[in-house]
Design goal:
Largest sheet of chain A: 5 strands, antiparallel
Strand content of chain A: 35-45%
Oligomer: heterodimer
CATH class of the largest domain in chain A: Mainly Beta
Largest sheet of chain B: none
Number of strands of chain B: 0
Structural class of chain B: mainly alpha
Distance between the termini of chain A: 55 Å
Distance between the termini of chain B: 27 Å
Order of helices and strands of chain B: HHHHHHHH
Number of domains of chain B: 2
Radius of gyration of chain B: 18 Å
Helix content of chain B: over 70%
């Protein structure tokens, strides 16, 4: 056990593990880039689930991920052991600063000899205190330190990294990710992974004058057991947090929901719009006893060289239907093409019933990802700790001064960790 | 020609002039060459600052949303870091490497389409700007560490000398700023895409930079690696950084191009 502990209590191991992780990740990045078919679905699920399922299907391509995860875990253990081993020593030195006197041997040819006239101890100590140092003296030896707390910062960073790893593990074990929840404006759908419904109250898409997208979003209401539990806008960089998960706007647009056909039956004095929902094959024309059937639908009608109609694109640029009208006895009254954009081409002819394709029902929709990541908040807190520790160490440096005082000669042998401190002391 | 483009071209010329003077200084020890190079570097930074400020005013957003803007910002970061190192460490020689690199980056910007592109809604956030700015300045500090390392290896200075301190400190500045970039980027990605990590090439290489420089910072405490070892690690680190910034975006067609 002691041998294992000693193995992990090594800074050299840290460096070599990092170099190994770097090498494996470099190699893996090319494998990942060249094989989108294998790795393409990784972001749709959580890492550990992917490793336990899809990842095992192509071991020749995915082995590097398992090696990388294993080495990151070893690095975590290495960090933990080094922290446990070194932190108490650091605390001891903080509590008993005189322990630092053993670090160097003033007078051994290092540092500088300073002339300080009579009372060098007091003079040196006074100048150091003026410069913000904490000064500690033991007989003819002096130790001074500025920003004494700085050595704790790397340990704070290490702690942040370890918390981040644990948070990531929690996310992998207890989170979920679901994508592709399409909901039309005004409609409600069951939230995947959660026991509540999501209703899209409004879809907003704003464009700039040049046609570029300016903003998009959806106003959602989360409903649980018939009760509205949360309502708000979801847009770019602004998910809605509900029931421990979050709803993210992914895509948006206008979807085809159906057609409006204007029908007139003079013998019955009927003249109104009939709604044909997408996918419906037959609908009644009011209470007239006539029915309308859609035999073919073209989203963007055009004619080929033989004069036959076909759809030139998926866009709803020129919708057309091949419609038939039946009487209640099942007798076909008439049939023919109706065009939304070019009514001159309509060839539906009947004296009993007149039809016109009036409008297309295009309705805005949004698609959403619904994710739950219980490790996200701890991961962000840990990241902020890492960031804080790193940045603070940029601005504050620990400075130390050791001195052996020769009171009788009015001199001191001084060692400073920073060259410019000598100038500050030699006033 | 508008002020933004005029100042950009002026900055390009000034950077080229500064580079020629810095490189001439390698062959000749004349002090006026260095003074001239420093003066041109200062003017370069001023011109580039005006150019980027003018573009910001014109576009209404920080200039970071396409390849031209990204390269221009990186070139500005290199000039700024040169002056930081010059003033903080009184080391002008990093200009031998930073300014020629600036010229290469400026040339890449010059041949890139420079039209102003509207900002996609997800990019319209301070987190995007902070993420990118911290990364660029971090990259530039890695560049300074690289420059210090080459000088160290060429001049064969002994361990513990000022150049070694410069290599370590600038590497550390780069690491701290890159950490800020990674953390802010992660929080932004979580809010925008629902996850703080995506299995994409650019993300993997960004992780590589971060963990590599973590190793670099630890290596300084490993006796065997001190001095030349750390200098070589810094040189390799900058190669990784440049590949992540330019190589992944251009050669590997990443969705996270910049």
């Amino acid at each position: 056990m002691k041998a294992v502990w000693e193995f992990f209590n090594s800074l050299k191991l840290t460096v070599y593990l990092i170099l190994a992780i770097v090498s494996v990740t470099m190699l893996g990045s090319f494998v990942l880039y060249l094989n989108p078919r294998i790795f393409g679905d990784m972001d749709q699920t959580l890492l550990f689930r992917w490793l336990a399922s899809s990842g095992l299907d192509y071991p020749a391509y995915t082995w590097w991920l398992y090696v990388m995860v294993a080495m990151v875990v070893l690095l975590g253990v290495n960090t933990l052991v080094c922290t446990v081993e070194r932190l108490p020593k650091l605390v001891n030195r903080y509590r008993d600063p005189m322990l630092n006197l053993r670090d160097v041997e003033p007078g051994g040819g290092t540092g500088r000899e300073m002339e300080l006239a009579d009372g060098p101890g007091l003079r040196l100590s006074g100048r150091l205190k003026e410069s913000g140092y904490h000064v500690f003296m033991d007989g003819d030896r002096l130790f001074a330190e500025k920003n004494r707390w700085v050595p704790f910062m790397p340990y704070l960073v290490h702690a942040g990294i370890m918390v981040f790893m644990v948070a990531h593990l929690i996310s992998g074990l207890y989170g979920y990710r679901n994508s592709g929840l399409y909901i039309y404006q005004g409609e409600t759908a069951r939230s995947p992974g959660g026991d509540y419904n999501i209703r899209v109250d409004e879809v907003k898409i704003d464009y700039r004058d040049d046609g570029s997208l300016k903003d998009y979003g959806s106003r959602l209401t989360a409903i649980k057991d018939g009760r509205e539990i949360k309502s708000g806008w979801v847009s770019a960089n602004m998910p809605m947090f509900v029931e421990g998960g979050a709803v993210y706007q992914r895509q948006f647009g206008y979807g085809f929901k159906g057609l409006y056909v204007r029908a007139a039956i003079p013998s019955q004095g009927f003249d109104d719009y009939v709604y044909l929902p997408k996918g419906a094959s037959m609908v009644d024309i009011g209470m007239t006893g006539y029915s309308l059937s859609v035999d073919r639908f073209l989203s963007d009608a055009a004619t080929d060289e033989r004069g036959m109609y076909y759809s030139i694109s998926e866009e709803l640029a020129n919708p057309a239907i091949m419609a038939s009208v039946y009487h209640k006895a099942g007798k076909k009254v008439a049939s023919g093409w109706l065009f939304a954009r070019d009514p001159m081409k309509d060839d539906f002819r009947s004296t009993e019933v007149m039809l016109k394709l009036a409008d297309v029902d295009l309705r805005p929709y949004s698609s959403f990802d619904v994710n739950r990541d219980p490790g996200a908040i701890p991961a962000f807190l840990a990241s902020l700790i890492v960031m804080f520790g790193s940045v603070v160490t940029l601005y504050f440096r620990r400075e130390r001064v050791w001195a052996t005082l020769d009171e009788a000669a009015g001199r001191a042998q001084v060692i400073c960790t920073d060259e410019d401190v000598y100038d500050r002391l030699a006033v | 020609m508008d002020i933004e483009r005029t100042m950009f071209i002026a900055a390009f010329g000034l950077a080229a002039g500064a580079s020629i003077l810095f490189l001439s200084r390698l062959a000749s020890d004349k002090r006026p060459l260095l003074l001239g190079a420093e003066a041109l570097t200062f003017l370069y930074l001023a011109a580039m600052t005006v150019s980027l400020a003018a573009r910001t005013v014109k576009s209404g957003h920080a200039p970071m949303s396409n390849r031209y803007e990204s390269l221009a910002c990186f070139a500005w970061s290199l000039g700024s870091v040169y002056w930081y190192v010059r003033l903080r460490y009184k080391e002008a020689r990093v200009g031998y490497f930073l300014m020629p690199l600036t010229v290469v980056v400026m040339f890449a910007a010059y041949i890139s389409p420079n039209m102003i592109t509207p900002l996609y809604p997800a990019l319209d956030t301070w987190m995007f700007e902070t993420h990118v700015a911290a990364a660029f300045v971090g990259y530039a500090f890695f560049g300074a560490s690289f420059a210090g390392s080459v000088l160290y290896l060429v001049s064969k200075e002994e361990a513990g000398r000022p150049l070694e301190k410069l290599i370590f400190r600038t590497g550390y500045y780069g690491y701290a700023l890159f950490t800020v970039s990674m953390v802010i980027g992660g929080i932004w990605a979580y809010l925008a895409w629902g996850t703080y990590w995506l299995w994409k090439v650019k993300e993997l290489w960004s992780f590589l930079i971060w963990i590599y420089y973590a190793g670099f910072l630890h290596a300084i405490y490993v006796k065997k690696l001190r001095g030349r070892g750390v200098a070589w690690l810094s040189i390799i680190g900058f190669a990784i950084t440049m590949f992540t910034y330019l190589g992944v975006g251009i050669m590997m067609k990443s969705t996270h191009q910049l």
